[in-house]
Amino acid sequence: MKRFEGLARPSTLAAGVVFLAGGILDLALRLTGDPASELVQTPVFAVRSIALLGGALLLILSLVSIYERHAKQIGPFGFSAAIVAGTGTILISGQFWAEAFLYPTLGRVAPGLLDGTDRAGSYAFGLMLTAAVFGVGWLLLGTAILRARVYRVLPAVVILAGGAVSLLPGNALGQTVLGAGLVLLSFSPSYRKHEGPKRQASPAR
């Protein structure tokens, strides 16, 4: 598994850029005021969804790489956080797949489902479950990174905030903040050991 360590920075940077760009694009699409059933049929939404699907897959690789590099420092709490974050990332990968390949068809045959005028049922529950697991997982992972001090404080805080905002289903701001945190993390120095300030050796008497 140590061979994954070298992939931590490039996969984290790529996933962060995609999530950041996808979140900004989502916010811009919502500002148009068009119904969701129409937005999902546009080429821009298709590109955005396929990019986010690739970003989520890269995020899984990034998660494995970061954990392998700092498993001892983040400890059992970090392991649990990584499991929850990984589960949430797998779930959101499925959501992005659906947005890329299923939502355009739903926009034509069942527009009320996407626009919120029809009773969503299990579809709404699935979105809420995905948002909850993904948000809690990355909130916990940001907390674990912050506690272990294996990276600088700012990226960990932004990732933690991104996880918290992602708890709201369908909220593009969450993935935007998380993407920003991942980009910051990719440029942050990595510390293998969490050590306090070194004391100067007392002169020999």
TrEMBL record:
UniProtKB keywords: Membrane, Transmembrane, Transmembrane helix
Membrane-spanning residues: 12-33, 45-67, 79-103, 123-141, 150-167
Protein's UniProt name: DUF4386 domain-containing protein
